[in-house]
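Worked example (supplementary).
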Amino acid sequence: MALLEIKNLNITYKMKDKSVYAVQDADITLESQDAVGIVGESGSGKSTLAMGVLRLLPKTAVTEGEALFEGKNLLTLSQDELSKVRWNEISVVFQKSMNALSPVHKIGKQMEDVYLIHRPKASKQEIRERIYELFRIVNLSERVYELYPHELSGGMMQRISIALSLILNPKLLVLDEATTALDVVTQSQILREIMQLQEKFHLTRLMITHDVSVVASTCNKVVVMYAGRIMEKGHVEDVLVNPKHPYTQGLLKSFPSFHGEKTDLRGIPGSLPDLSVRPEGCVFAPRCPYATDECRNKMPELKAAGDGKHEWQVACHRNGR
Amino acid sequence: MKRYILKRVLTGIVIVLVSVCINFVLIRCAPGDPVRILAGLDDPNEDQIAVLTAQYGLDKSIPEQFVVYIGNVLRGDFGFSYVNQKQVIDLIAEKVVPTLLLSLSALTIAVLGGTLLGIYCARKNGKLIDKALCAVSYVFDATPSFWLGLMLILIFASWLGILPTSGMENMRGHYTGIRHVLDVMQHMILPVGTLALIQFPYYFRIARSSVLQVMSEDFITTLRATGMKEKKIFNKYVLRNALIPTVTILGSSLAFLLSGSVYIETVFSWPGMGRLLFDSIGKRDYPVLSGIYLILAITVAVMMILVDVVYSLIDPRIKYD
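After joint prediction of all chains, the assembly is encoded as:
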């Protein structure tokens, strides 16, 4: 059984005068110990998808579909049952780690509080040892326990966030743009640490980022999202090496490569469509260099691509032609 | 911290000196002569006026008078009231207790009531009760205090006849012990109520907006993701963060309240410093006015230092080194 199976997920922000369709018909499967990256530009719905599955969106967001975590549908669990799953089984490292903790409480105390939610009978001694152990794992000194968030740098706070996410040995770790705000040196250090931790603690990882290179270097599977829809998904060595979808191709051309020949960096002309309008055809058609009348009139479905050895799906009419 | 406080005390002394100087000059520049007011309009005796003017030192130039005054104050002599024929220091000491009784009770009610209602409304954000209480707070914020006082007297004292119109105690009662306390409390209801109603919108709006702002902070999402109960998130994390602004404005508003109750004390004939100030302005009782202004300036300066110190104690992000 897959660890997390997201089936036919739709997330809609209901406003007074309109609805914004932030995520539409998303299917994603995470096998145990997978490292799945969701990429897409800002506003593509990747964070909304993850936060929707964890039920952390504001009340204006309506989440429909299924998100089966070890067979339990997270979207229909009662608040109490959901609280038990949270952090114990699924934890999150958030984007803005500088604001991830309360500014007026000591870091150690806040971590204690989180530990106590799920282990209410733990002794002071036990909690303190666990937190010191986590500090060692993420290369922080024990004195951080007594400090406040504003006394640490961005990289150190990111390490705190990671330490906090591991405190209860979760099965699934969601990283929402977890290294985006860091400089490249710190980013690569932290990514390396995350991968070591994944191996050591047999974690399953869901990585949300707009940086294709992060996915390429740290994930085994990738999901490419655009305007709330999945464009292409499969193994990193397929999708990011030989992309089938014009959007994935455009996304890859927007990043420089270390190896190979020097080519001009090219962005994708145009910008994200209005998510409150649901087009009849492919959402990417207005920006797609290959768009035909068929693309503009008929929505392409996700279909298998490649030689069938790996799971690889593309939502494009050009696929297989 | 010690150096900072020392620096603040020194600047505080300068502020007090400057404010005393300005007040001293301003009241002497205002038209009207205390000796002529004392002598009466019907049949002023010019010889008597000359003797009194010389006796009070009013024949000297303003800078000369100021030097004499400062010298006296430093020796602990705040002067002698022309009108009341009492030492200014004794006069103020006698009036300061009723004023503190009035303003501290009103402040306590306004702060507790306003803050609790503000927190309540933040939790009911957008609901009918929230909108209704916001409207009420705007109305009282825009109401002049003396007018509200007069209206309350009209309703509760004149029409309904259930509360006394003015004063601090029943002059004919000669009550002692618990009867006296109850009598004073009954006289306090209207003036304290007026001051509290005028002050509460301030604390209401600060608490409400502060709670709303903290609830939208990123760390609240982190705490929700950890499975912490909403109640604990609110009571431990939201409140601790949201109440910082309330604590910091407390000090400055107490100083404001001491001088701001002038209208209320006058409307309700409350035997406090505000009314003494009002009467002394009418009679150009220079020594009393200078004395009251000096006390107010010192109170404001001390409160400002206290607020800064308390601020650094409750918010770890504030450091003065």
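Two points are worth noting when inspecting this output. Residues 37 and 160 of chain A are 22 Å apart (CA to CA). The longest strand of chain A covers residues 19-30.
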